[in-house]
Amino acid sequence: MTTKKAAAPGGATPRDRLLDAAGELFYREGVGVPTDALCKAAGVSKRSMYQLFDSKDAVFAAALERGEPALTAWLLPPPEEERGPRERLLYVFERLEEAAREPDYLGCPYVAAQVELKEPSHVASVVAARAKRRLVDFFRTEAGRAGAADPGLLARQLAVVYDGAGTRAGIGAEDLRGLAVTMAATLLDAAGVPDDGPPR
Amino acid sequence: MTTKKAAAPGGATPRDRLLDAAGELFYREGVGVPTDALCKAAGVSKRSMYQLFDSKDAVFAAALERGEPALTAWLLPPPEEERGPRERLLYVFERLEEAAREPDYLGCPYVAAQVELKEPSHVASVVAARAKRRLVDFFRTEAGRAGAADPGLLARQLAVVYDGAGTRAGIGAEDLRGLAVTMAATLLDAAGVPDDGPPR
DNA sequence: GGACATGGAAACCGATCGGTTTCCACCGGG
DNA sequence: CCCGGTGGAAACCGATCGGTTTCCATGTCC
């Protein structure tokens, strides 16, 4: 029987190591990273890489996809929390500012991927677009719960703030101390979102 | 005497043709365009290209720099106009939305350059950063004239909206019908910028 | 008309890249 | 103890890329 593969000493399975390294390297260096560098960083041979994936692009897409749950879990407020919808929305922008404080922050990886690839039909672009859509969906449902006049509009506005702030911080044009949260709060106010009631 | 070079039949001087084509191609295809493609598009030999510039990167930087005056002239309100400062600020976001309506709009070229290069010290990144700074400067001085409570803060906020809206439109995640202008207006209101008086 | 500078076409060069293949070391199951 | 599957190291291949060079077809100035 082909053993189902347990955690090898050098880390997880080659696939995991590869995708982790890919996520990091693509983010840091861009789509242009040579496959050799990728494999070296992952401690994986090109042989293994190409029998796990069809192309470098496929690795890129898979790495983006794999990273999403973790990023989402960190970015979005935990669902079991007793926070009100307004605070839940602002929570995301606090996380964004926290991430942007990191000196080597390079902006949202999904934005970067789509900007670098330019081709929307690219496998990785599709994955990235889906990830971004999920964030807007979160914004919209929370905006609805929060009593926004036009939840769809507010969600789009928040997405613009999120991507704008993330991008500007990523290119070093801005350090965001409170900027993203302030802007989000201003837009929430203008959309008629009231303060959350006291935590129950 | 070395003739000072007049408009050749095939277009302007080789340098001009090269920079025009470079601006267009780098924007459309990204930093990865082969020099051959660049030269072919410009109708210029690599020989000429490399005796005009030191490297492809230098061409990139020069193309970005050369494009700026035209873009600025189109993006910013004409100075001789009798518009009030609030309208002058909103004018920029109307131009942005107009540009984003173009189906092949790919976002702000300076943002794209910095995102793709990632290296802030890159020649082209420096040019791009300077261009972006000039826009924020415009925002700040107009915000001051407009009576904003904190012109510096408002300018940073407007920059976030500008880059966020431009980027999202560029990656096809948003079509911006009125979104950018609305957001800018909301932020102007929150910053205490009054409506312009009647045109004198 | 002849000397000279300009500039395109294209061959060329070394390096690199995406992807394939070969070889071998190591593993668990019989 | 052998056997088949896994997977790393590394050679390898064709294509491409950034950059250089050679060659020649134009000019323009004297």
Explain what this protein looks like in three dimensions.
- Two copies of one chain form a homodimer.
- With 200 residues, the first copy, chain A, is an all-alpha fold.
- Chain A folds into two domains: 12-64, Arc Repressor Mutant, subunit A; 76-190, Tetracycline Repressor, domain 2 (Orthogonal Bundle), CATH 1.10.357.10.
- The first copy, chain A, is built from nine helices and no strands.
- Chain A has helices at residues 14-29, 35-42, 46-52, 56-75, 85-101, 109-117, 123-145, 151-170, 179-190.
- In chain A, α1 (14-29) crosses α4, α5 (85-101) crosses α7 and α6 packs across α7 (123-145).
- The radius of gyration of chain A is 19 Å and the shape is elongated.
- The termini of chain A are far apart.
- The structure holds a DNA duplex (30 and 30 nucleotides).
- Chains A, B: This is TetR/AcrR family transcriptional regulator.
- Chains A, B: InterPro entries: Homeodomain-like_sf, HTH-type_TetR-like_transc_reg, HTH_TetR, Tet_transcr_reg_TetR-rel_C_sf.
